[in-house]
Amino acid sequence: MLTFKQLEAVFWVAQLGGFAQAAQKLHTTQSAISKRVQELEALFDTPLFDRTLRTARLTAKGEEMVAIARRLLEQRDGAVQQFSKPQVTERLLRIGVTELTAMTWLPRWVSLLKKDHPGLLIQPSVSDSQDLRESLLADEVDLIVVPEAYIDNRFTHRKVGNVENAWMAKPGLLPQRKSRRLHDLSTQTILTQGPRSGTGLAFRQWAQRTGFQPDKTIVSNNLLAIIGMTVSGLGVSHLPRNCLQPMIETGLLEVLKVTPALPDVAYYAAHKQEQRSTWISSVALLAGESCDFNRSFQLPLQVSGA
Amino acid sequence: MLTFKQLEAVFWVAQLGGFAQAAQKLHTTQSAISKRVQELEALFDTPLFDRTLRTARLTAKGEEMVAIARRLLEQRDGAVQQFSKPQVTERLLRIGVTELTAMTWLPRWVSLLKKDHPGLLIQPSVSDSQDLRESLLADEVDLIVVPEAYIDNRFTHRKVGNVENAWMAKPGLLPQRKSRRLHDLSTQTILTQGPRSGTGLAFRQWAQRTGFQPDKTIVSNNLLAIIGMTVSGLGVSHLPRNCLQPMIETGLLEVLKVTPALPDVAYYAAHKQEQRSTWISSVALLAGESCDFNRSFQLPLQVSGA
DNA sequence: CATTCTTACGTACTGCGTAAGAATG
DNA sequence: CATTCTTACGCAGTACGTAAGAATG
């Protein structure tokens, strides 16, 4: 069983360069530290320190473990700190959105919020849907806007908009044709988002259902990166249609008519049902009013000179 | 002391709706679960379950704790799984970049990589600099491109480029003037990135040194969101200059001449020094060749209709 | 009165510290 | 031969299981 004590041991040994120093730091003895490290080594059946030298030197696996330990310990300390502080400032509104929202209607929403609630401190953070959902559960944000799939009974939610998707590619990448079947795409490199993203998840599930299995894929966790790589002709991707209209009109992207068509994705604003709820509800309402995934935005990326 | 056992207890009690079920799941007794939960409640001096009901119901704080527990346990399991798998596929290249890189020269880099290494599976992930650094340490990515501040002795690194920053705002937001002092900005709302971002960190340190203390700030973790809000006139921000040239030319943004000037930020490609290094080095070299933060890209955002 | 959680108590065991041992430079 | 980590061993405290108690619906 992995424990924090073990992680603390390897971390501080690595940090301070010795078992003795780590022992002092953790208010225990060298012996205990040695044991905890050995437990960890036994657990994963791999040495973490090079014992041939007199002084403790990390192995490659040890380096990795230290990095993992640092992360887990930071997570723990952060969680403790967050949980310990009794209340968040009342005039701070932390909203979480995905990239697509950030690119389209976030500014308008913030703008309306500032007008309706002057003096309010707004903190918009952008992340993938799964991260946002977890942040909301852990009370790290007050309200999120995510695809339907990430909505949960525990949240109060309200639909804010719909996103229409389409297959896109660099014009000329594929032979010109009126329309095509999904199968025709499977030899192409498919650019898609990771499983932590709403669009990525929806696409994966849809691909599963339709039995679509592309040969090659490039996976990224970032919409803009996908768009950029698509524009550069690195592959075919499924992208929000309407907001990319200008890029289609200027000939940077081409919409591919493919059957069956990609599904729409519905977006919801969600927050916890608590005391602040009534107030937060008005924020969610404003989200619904300002939401517009179809507003066009222009070429966000250079065309690669490859 | 917070332990995984305690977290597992509250998590599974919440998940399965009872102490007895959780006990079964964790191969122990109700009594032990009860104790672990009580330890946690004592640790934070707050009830996690409502004991007035016959069946276990979470309190508000309990909900929060469950979310925190879920996250920490997921982190742990992920770490274990990652550490347990002996080796990553040799033909998979996982690169980590910041948003700015994703928006400017990532597609070109990927394009060159595909040309030089056909058949290579490329996985670009986009995140903040601190995240990327941690991911590299934990062997979750093979190579990252981040600002100088996040480079570490443990990494092999190579400079790839330089980013020139400037103060920007929506034209007309501030009274027209040839040039201004930093002090003149302190009454404006400052849009800036969070402390986990390279630019955000550099700015904070710089602000500290120059004694700049803005009245109001809007903090986000996303460059695109900052740009969007700036274009919408929500405040003044420090942004990469050259790549936003088209937005300046089309009158969406205005560069403010302010003394003292904002510092440049140097970007480096970094990777661990290991067996694969020689190969990875060539990837880093290509990064240096394709890097160009000054390539213009056009308006990535709608103008807010607020 | 059945179900669900808490409390009490005796036990087993894990993890700790002391101190001696091994290895290195 | 001093320093650094490991091993051995006995001890102590912790966490556990059993079983009885309290509270709820």
Describe the structure.
Two copies of one chain form a homodimer. By secondary structure, chain A is an alpha/beta fold. The first copy, chain A, is built from eleven helices and 14 strands. Chain A has helices spanning 4-16, 19-25, 30-44, 60-84, 99-103, 106-116, 129-137, 198-210, 223-231, 245-249, 277-290, and strands at residues 49-50, 57-58, 92-97, 121-126, 143-147, 155-163, 165-169, 180-181, 189-193, 216-220, 236-240, 254-256, 258-259, 265-272. In chain A, helix 8 links the parallel strand 9 (189-193) and strand 10 (216-220). In chain A, helix 1 packs across helix 2 and helix 1 (4-16) crosses helix 3 (30-44). Chain A is flat and about 75 Å long. At the A-B interface, helix 4, helix 5, helix 6, strand 4 and strand 10 of A face helix 4, helix 5, helix 6, strand 4 and strand 10 of B. Chain A binds a DNA duplex (25 and 25 nucleotides) through helix 3.
